Amino acid sequence: MNTQTSISALSTLSARLRAETNTTHERLDRSIMEAKPFDNIENYGRFLRVQHGLHHHVAPLYRSADLAAYFPGLNTRGRLSDVAQDMADLDLPRPEITAAPATETVDLPEALGWLYVVEGSNLGAAFLLKYAKKMGLSEAHGARHLAEPPEGRAPYWRAVKSALDAVELSPPEQALAIKGAAAAFATTRDLVRTHL
């Protein structure tokens, strides 16, 4: 069985998204860490600019009634205001963004792909928060956007995956979800290239 066949045979949307984006995800993680965002506050400030850009682009997802039907409480999960407060804590100016959010007009399947990426980043944030704490930052000062969800990272991620997997999508719609995840990673990669 070739790789493409084995990926399309995966039974859940979250498993397909993971399989289709794993290499891109690993490359992006490497490029972020190679920029040494936790070596000093100046580098961390550039990292916050990346985060601010990403969360600007995904902010419409957290206001989406379509997504809220599958993800209860989603409107409380957005982290753009946390990133903005982290920047204010460190006396960093917020970037001026003139572009419309990338997710402003995406349909439900693509939105699911974007949400998979941005909510999945919360798992890795556990490690990033440890690095931030070594610089004297915390969930209450400078690293709010890295804070653990109230129910814990692993239980929250399981709930997100379960909700993703409960959405019934046709094969073409699943392809759109994968396209959305790829777009989320590409947008983040572009932000990393610009700011880090």
TrEMBL record:
<dbReference type="GO" id="GO:0004392">
    <property type="term" value="F:heme oxygenase (decyclizing) activity"/>
</dbReference>
<protein>
    <submittedName>
        <fullName>Heme oxygenase</fullName>
    </submittedName>
</protein>
<dbReference type="GO" id="GO:0006788">
    <property type="term" value="P:heme oxidation"/>
</dbReference>
<dbReference type="InterPro" id="IPR016053">
    <property type="entry name" value="Haem_Oase-like"/>
</dbReference>
<dbReference type="Pfam" id="PF01126">
    <property type="entry name" value="Heme_oxygenase"/>
</dbReference>
<dbReference type="InterPro" id="IPR016084">
    <property type="entry name" value="Haem_Oase-like_multi-hlx"/>
</dbReference>
